[in-house]
């Protein structure tokens, strides 16, 4: 089987360092929010060009704690894309605010700034653009809209660690940014993890307090917080993967170039559009086809894994029926949910494996 991602191969490539890092933590007797987490926070803030990084339990919590630290809640609206993983909107709902969706661009699949502007009301407090599949959103336009209307911008960068936009790292482009270290993310650990990056010192302080039960002084609480911390073991693993991430992202880009070169003339396939302002790091390689189901079946028969990201837009999720959206509200996102599919993409995919996938997509689909 050629898998969408291959975490075993990823581990093998860093096996000695990871096992050493894990052993070090185990022997140290310090397991939660210790020196490894501090080192990870420092290294990530430096790498991304921000002053603060706060590690938390997962990417969803990163979003929830950031929204809460900004005081966003009941009565507020936050604009995001209907074409993303559920957590982008779930976090908004979790703090009591209302997610307001805006349709996406048909080529990049990212939220369309013009659509954002149409959805702004007096209740709007923030925009959460998602760098979907690893491709940076058009942040200049979004920042301009946010400035004009006095809104916060919180990047959902869970799929885009290391990607750049106009030579700046994703994670340094808005007021704050949220990352996930779920194992299959391009920078992942062997469990759950997440981090918030920002240059807002006050915000970072509020999030640090929220992540440990609303306390700055142990056993004295003036706020209801969370238990949302990163373990030292995960920090140790992430510190190693962090040294490889640029190389891994570069490999993803090279593989994506090869897919694009060899598949772009296939009439029943539409390649994703790469924006000129950003470097797409291809957390996933998704493309469009009217014959998605048939192609996926052909690939599966040949032991090649595929995936659908995402089969149902968020405005059409059952849980959001109370928001009164209907089919047809976001035609581009809805069309993508019917046509996009992902083929294997990870830094350890070999050219030989990629050639098999390409050959199959070219021939089999032609029947
Ligand atoms: C994975 C992901 C999240 C949530 O991260 P978890 O660590 O799984 O909680 C949020 N937003 C997007 C776009 C994601 O891909």
UniProtKB/TrEMBL annotation:
Q: Which positions are catalytic residues?
A: 185 (proton acceptor)
Query: Keywords, A to Z?
Result: Pyridoxal phosphate
Write down a Pfam family by its short name: DegT_DnrJ_EryC1
The record's Gene Ontology biological-process terms are: polysaccharide biosynthetic process
Q: Which InterPro entries match?
A: DegT/StrS_aminotransferase, PyrdxlP-dep_Trfase, PyrdxlP-dep_Trfase_major, PyrdxlP-dep_Trfase_small
Q: Which residues carry this modification: N6-(pyridoxal phosphate)lysine?
A: 185
Q: Matching PANTHER family, A to Z?
A: 3-OXO-GLUCOSE-6-PHOSPHATE:GLUTAMATE AMINOTRANSFERASE (PTHR30244:SF36), TRANSAMINASE (PTHR30244)
Indicate the family of this protein. Belongs to the DegT/DnrJ/EryC1 family.
- Under what name is this protein listed? SpsC
Q: Which organism is it from?
A: Neobacillus vireti LMG 21834
């Amino acid at each position: 089987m050629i898998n969408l991602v291959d975490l075993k191969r990823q581990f093998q490539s860093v096996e000695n360092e990871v096992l050493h890092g894990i052993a070090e933590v185990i022997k140290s007797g310090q397991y939660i929010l210790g020196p490894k987490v501090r080192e990870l926070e420092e290294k990530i803030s430096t790498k991304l060009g921000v002053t603060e990084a706060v590690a938390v339990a997962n990417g969803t919590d990163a979003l929830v704690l950031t929204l809460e630290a900004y005081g966003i809640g009941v009565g507020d609206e936050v604009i995001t894309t209907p074409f993303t993983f559920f957590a982008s909107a779930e976090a908004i709902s979790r703090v009591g605010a209302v997610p307001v969706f805006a349709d996406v661009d048909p080529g990049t699949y990212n939220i369309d700034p013009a659509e954002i502007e149409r959805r702004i009301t007096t209740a709007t407090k923030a925009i959460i653009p998602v760098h979907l599949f690893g491709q940076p959103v058009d942040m200049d336009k979004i920042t301009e809209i946010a400035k004009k209307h006095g809104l916060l911008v919180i990047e959902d960068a869970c799929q885009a660690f290391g990607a750049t936009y106009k030579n700046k790292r994703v994670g340094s482009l808005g007021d704050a940014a949220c990352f996930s270290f779920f194992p299959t993310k391009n920078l992942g650990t062997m469990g759950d993890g997440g981090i918030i990056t920002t240059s807002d010192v006050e915000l970072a302080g509020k999030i640090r307090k929220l992540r440990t039960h609303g306390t700055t002084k142990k056993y004295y609480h003036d706020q209801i917080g969370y238990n949302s911390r990163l373990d030292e073991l995960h920090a140790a693993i992430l510190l190693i993967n962090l040294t490889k991430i640029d190389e891994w992202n570069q490999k993803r880009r090279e593989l994506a170039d090869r897919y694009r070169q060899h598949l772009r003339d296939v009439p029943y396939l539409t390649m994703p559009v790469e924006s000129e302002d950003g470097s797409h790091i291809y957390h996933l390689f998704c493309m469009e086809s009217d014959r998605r189901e048939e192609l996926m079946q052909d690939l599966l028969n040949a032991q090649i894994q595929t995936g659908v990201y995402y089969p149902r837009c968020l405005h059409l999720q059952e849980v959001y029926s109370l928001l009164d959206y209907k089919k047809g509200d976001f035609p581009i996102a809805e069309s993508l949910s019917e046509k996009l599919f992902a083929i294997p993409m990870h830094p350890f995919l070999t050219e030989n494996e990629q050639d098999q996938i390409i050959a199959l997509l070219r021939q089999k689909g032609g029947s």
